[in-house]
Design goal:
This protein is mostly helical. The chain is built from 24 helices and no strands.
Length: 601
């Protein structure tokens, strides 16, 4: 496995947070929503549509220049330069970054973000010294501002560049500085990230025990967190995989396999396929050394299911090489030859493409440096003439400005006078209209209060009528009981008087049957007067049936079980059971008064 490739991937991931924060700060300083709108629109365009992104970035630059917004102009140039880089237009890319980095406003947040991107491009091209120059300028700015989070990542990236240049003592110094900056920031993610980077450095220096010490420090920080966020989980997978590689160096294959499998699991869950592939490659090498060739194949097969590996050229090379060796040992000549052919082709594609891109970028960088030098000489020759021209133009402008200022003061005075006069007149009209509206509102309020009082009075009268009616019904029930007794006594009356007595009783019973209609009217009146009560009761106790609600309405009038039985036309026992079931559905305790509970709704 290529040790530096995994370190570079991790280092790039750790720089994302610093760059995002810088971009956010730069946008905040723009203070122009239209510029933010340009950036949002550009970011919303699919990456494949670079031409559209370039067009919008140019519009952003033009608009920012017209409004003298330096931050917006730098942001637009930075975006445009990266788009040119993606289209391999390296001359235009370096021209724009030269304009940004040669500007005197080096402390700008947008300029710092642009320098970060510029340094990344230079590093990819192998121009490590030039990338280091940009990083050092960024470091000086961050030290001055005491911005420790991006400072920790910048120190780490400076250390990585010194490692590329084989300045290992300086690299170790800047890694220690990165740790101190992360501790000053105080966030667990930053500290664990730097510990991981330092561990990778010592691992690549063939100091596995010291590397393992820093990996374990990072793991301890993350594993002590109550809950891991997405970035924490990704970092945990990276460190597990890196420590697994170190255990492999130390000959502890069991621990190496355990950590590498954890890295594969976490990376798959977080969709960090680069880390997953690197861990799988290291794990496959362990199985290959232990002559577990089927284990090599079983480890690598899932890798090809995640999609093409066009962006991971070196991983693709190592994968085919491991497959080739495993199938060769298993005497599967067909598979072995297929992967050997793919391995050779991948190497050729990797070397030719990487060298071609590196040469193109390096050529563009040198050409841009020569162009800048020529422009500087030309500018020095024209500088004196420009100064003289500016002095003459300044004198003309001062005279013209004085005239404009005087005229502007006169015109402004007239405008202010007319405006104030109209304002006073309009205020008088508004005041009169406000007074009229206020009186109408008060009159409407008084009308509403009177209507409310009338409604309250009507409800009280209705409730009184209902109560009286319920009592009257109870009294009639007692009369009917009496009638029943009288009918029973007919047995003792002489036969000649029975007919007369029955006739009188029938007339009496017919009169009393009118109570049935009264009961219906009584129930309807209860529902009409207490409609708000029934709505609230249904909302609070949705499990109640229609019969339950009617019983509740009668209980709310403080009627006894006997009175309710008469009104409902049921037995006393049935009325009592209905009251008990209602209490149960309302979850009332024995000490709760159901009448008070219902009257409170």
């Amino acid at each position: 496995m290529n040790k530096s490739s995994r370190h570079t991937v991790i280092q790039s991931c750790l720089l994302i947070l610093s760059i995002v924060l810088s971009t956010a700060e730069a946008r905040a300083q723009n203070k122009d929503p239209k510029i933010d709108g340009f950036v949002v629109e550009i970011e919303a365009i699919p990456n494949a549509d670079v031409s559209k992104k370039v067009t919008l970035a140019k519009k952003l630059i033009t608009y920012s220049k017209s409004t003298n917004n330096y931050e917006g102009e730098v942001t637009g140039k930075d975006l445009l330069a990266r788009f040119y880089y993606s289209r391999k237009e390296y001359d235009n890319c370096f021209r724009l970054y030269s304009e940004i980095t040669n500007d005197s406003k080096k402390s700008s947040e947008a300029t710092r973000t642009a320098r970060e991107h510029y340094a990344q491009i230079l590093s990819k091209a192998g121009l490590y010294e030039s990338a280091l120059e940009q990083k050092i300028i960024i470091r000086e700015f961050l030290l001055k501002e005491k911005d420790y989070l991006p400072l920790s990542f910048t120190e780490s990236s400076i250390a990585l560049l010194h490692t590329k240049l084989e300045n290992f003592d300086k690299a170790e110094f800047h890694y220690m500085e990165a740790i101190e900056a992360a501790k000053k920031w105080g966030k667990h993610y930053a500290i664990a990230s730097i510990y991981n980077s330092v561990g990778v450095f010592y691992r690549n220096q063939n100091r596995p025990k010291r590397a393992l010490d820093y990996f374990n420090k990072g793991l301890l920080i993350l594993e002590n967190q109550d809950a891991l966020k997405y970035n924490d989980s990704v970092l945990l997978g990276y460190i597990k995989g890196n420590s697994g590689g170190v255990y492999y160096q130390l000959g502890n294959n069991d621990k190496a396999i355990e950590n590498l499998n954890e890295d594969i699991k976490i990376s798959k869950e977080c969709k960090q396929y680069t880390s997953m592939i690197n861990a799988a490659i290291t794990l496959a090498k362990i199985y290959l050394n232990e002559k577990e060739y089927n284990g090599v194949i079983q480890t690598l097969d899932p890798i090809f299911k995640i999609g093409p590996l066009d962006d991971l050229e070196f991983s693709r090379i190592e994968l085919h090489n491991l497959y080739y060796q495993a199938y060769s040992e298993l005497n599967n000549k067909l598979k072995a030859s297929e992967h050997f052919a793919s391995y050779q082709k991948a190497w050729q594609d990797h070397d030719s493409l990487k060298e071609e891109i590196r040469l193109d970028i390096e050529h563009a960088y040198v050409a841009n440096a020569l162009r800048i030098q020529e422009e500087r000489l030309s500018n020095e020759q024209q500088l004196h003439e420009r100064k003289m021209t500016l002095v003459r133009e300044r004198e003309k402008f001062d005279r013209f400005r004085s005239t404009i200022i005087i005229l502007s003061i006169i015109v402004l005075s007239i405008v202010v006078f007319v405006f104030l006069r109209r304002k006073i007149k309009n205020n008088k009209k508004d005041l009169a209209l406000f007074s009229l509206r206020n009186e109408l509102a008060k009159e409407k309020l008084r009308t509403i209060e009177l209507e409310k009082a009338n409604l309250s009075s009507e409800v009280r009268l209705k409730n009184k009528d209902l109560t009286d009616f319920a009592i009257d019904i109870s009294r009639k029930h007692e009369l009917l009981q009496y009638l029943k007794q009288e009918i029973g006594s007919l047995k003792t009356i002489p036969n000649e008087k029975v007919s007369e007595k029955v006739k009188d009783l029938l007339i009496y019973v017919n009169n009393q049957l009118i109570i049935d209609q009264n009961l219906i009217d009584f129930q309807n009146n209860i529902e009409k007067v207490n409609y708000e009560f029934f709505e609230s009761l249904t909302e609070k106790y949705p499990s109640l049936t229609q019969t339950d609600r009617k019983i509740a309405g009668l209980i709310r009038l403080n009627l006894s079980n006997k009175e309710i039985a008469v009104i409902r036309g049921v037995s006393y026992k049935a009325a009592k059971i209905s009251r008990y079931r209602l209490r149960k559905k309302m979850n009332l305790d024995e000490e709760d008064n159901i009448v008070e509970v219902l009257q409170s709704i």
